[in-house]
Amino acid sequence: MSKPAVLPEDIAREVIAPESYAEWNGVLDTFDRLREEMPVAKVIAEDDVFEPFWLITRYEDVMRISKDNKTFLNNPKPVVFSTREATAFSQAATGSNMLVDSLVVFDAPIHPKYRKLTMDWFMPRNLDKIEAEIRALAHRTVDRMIEAGPEVDFVIEVSGPYPLHVVMQILGVPEEDEPRMMMLTQQMFGGQDADLSGTGMDNMTPEQVLQLVSGAVKSFEDYFAQLAKDRRANPTDDVASVIANALVDGKPLPPRDLAGYYIIVATAGHDTTSASTAGAMMALANDPEQFARVKADRSLLPGIVEEAIRWTSPVQHFMRTAAEDVEVGGQQIKAGDWMMINYVAANHDPAQFENPRKFDAARSPNRHLAFGAGAHQCLGLHLARLEMRILFEALLDRIESIAPAGEAKRSNSTFVGGLKTLPLRITPA
Ligand code: HEM
Q1: Cβ(239) to ligand 1 under 6 A?
Q2: pLDDT tens column, 161-216
Q3: Are 274 and 157 in contact (CB under 8 A)?
Q4: Residues paired with 404 in a beta bridge
Q5: Strand ranges (DSSP E) for 151-263?
Q6: What is the ipTM of this complex?
C-alpha cells in the first residue's frame, strides 16, 4: 500500500479554520483541488492541537460512508470536529467526548431505539397537522419584515427568527423564552463567530469560551428537565410530550439522554434552516428573472427549496470513527481512525452536480447530501422543507420585488455555517 496522502500544512490549516467557510469561494476552490488530487487525505495538525483525521471530499465516498453505519461509527471519537483541548474539556465536564449526548452521537443498538421514538412525529402525515400554525408564523414574520422595510437585514428579520419560532413551537417553549434559547444555541454552535456568540468570545481565553459553552449546555439541561416534568404531568401532542413520556426497553430516558434529545431538536433545526432560507433569498435577489418565474409559477418552489439546501449545505461536516480497517478512495483507513465527511465538498462535486456553484432551481435529479444519508439522515428534513416552502409562499404573495442592498456576509464556522447578514431592499406587493 502506498504512503497516505497527507494534506500540505497550509491546506490543513485552511480546512479546519472557521474563517475559511466565511470565504465560501476560496474553500470551494480548495475542495475542487482536493477532490481531483487527494480525495481522501490525512489532515495532521503541525502543533498537534487536534487528532489527525481523514478528509473525505468526493460525493461518492461521503455517500458510501454515510450509508455504512456498521463500518463508520458516530462514536467513540467526537462526531463534530473539535480540538484535543475541547474534547478533553468535554470529558472532564461530562465524562463524554461531546458536551451533549444526542441522537447523532449514538450508534446501534441505542440509536435506532431512540430515533424510533420521534420518527413518526416528524413524518409528513403528522406535520400536516401543524401546517396551519407554521403558516401563521410565516405570515407574522413577513408582516414584521414589511413593517421594518423597505431596507431590511433578511437574516435578522426573517431567516433567523422564523425557524427558531417553529422549533420552539413544536417543543412548546413559550415565546418569551426564545431569545434565551437563541443565545444558548449560538453559544454552542456559533461560538466560532464573535458577531454571533453575542458574548465577545473573541476576547476570551479558550478556557473561558469552553466554560461559556458548558454553561450553555447546563442551562439547556435545567430548562428541559423542567419542560419534561410538565409534559409528564400534562401531556399534549407536541414533540416535547413524546420525548418526556418515551420508554426505551420499558424505562424512561436517563436525564442526560433526555436533555440531549431536547437539545438536538431545539438546536439542529434553526441555524440550519435559517442558512438555507437566507441562501435561497440571496439567490433570488441576485436573479430577478428567477424570482419573477417562481412568483408566477409556484410549482417551481420545491425545486428552489431543495437547491437552496444543496447550494448552502449548512451542516458543513460530521465526523465518523472507522470500526475496522477499510479502504476508501485508495487510502488505507485503520480501525479507530477519525474521518471528516464534508457535505460542502460532496455537494459541489462536479461528478454528481453539473456546474455545482450555480444556483439552479430546475436541477434534476438533485440527490444532495446536505441532510446526510443512512441511519442518521436528518430527522427534521420534512419539517425543514415544509417550513421553507410555507415561508416562500408567504414571501412571494407579499413581495413585488427584491434587490441586494449591501454586502451579504457568511459566518465563521467549521460546523454549521451560512449567511449572518443579508441586506435587502424589499418592494411589497
Ligand atoms: C441530523 C442537516 C434541519 C433535526 C442531521 C444531519 C444533517 C442535517 C447533515 C446528519 C445526517 C447524517 O449524519 O447522515 C440539516 C439541514 C437542515 C436540518 C441542512 C435544514 C436545512 C433540521 C430540522 C430538525 C433537524 C428542522 C428538527 C427540528 C435533526 C436531528 C438529527 C439531524 C434530530 C439527528 C438524526 C440522527 O442522528 O438520527 N441534520 N438538518 N434538522 N437533524 Fe437536521
Answers
A1: no
A2: 999 999 999 988 888 888 888 787 777 654 566 666 555 566 777 677 777 777 88
A3: no
A4: 424
A5: 151-153, 247-248, 251-252
A6: 0.99
